[in-house]
Amino acid sequence: MLISALLLLSACGLFDGGSIDQSCEDTPEGCEQTGDGGVGDGGGTTPLTIAVDAVEPTYGLMDGGESVSITGGPFAADATIAFGTKQATLRTWQEGELLVLAPSSSSEGWVDVTVTTGDGLGKRTSAYRYFRDGEGKTTALGQFEYLRSVGSLASIGDTASARVGFISPKAGATWYNRYSDGWDSCRRNWDPDLGWEPLDPQADSLDLAEYGGTASLNLVWDAAESHFSGTDGSGQVPTTSLPQGGTWDLLSVDSQDWPAFEIEGFLRMPSTFDLSSPNLETGTSIAQNALSFVWRADTSSSGVLIELTLADPLTGEEIERVSCQATDDGAFTVPSTAFQSWEADKTLYIKIGRTIETVTTLALNGGDVRIVGSLSTMGALTSD
Question: Domains of the chain: which residue ranges?
Answer without folding.
Answer: 46-131, 138-383
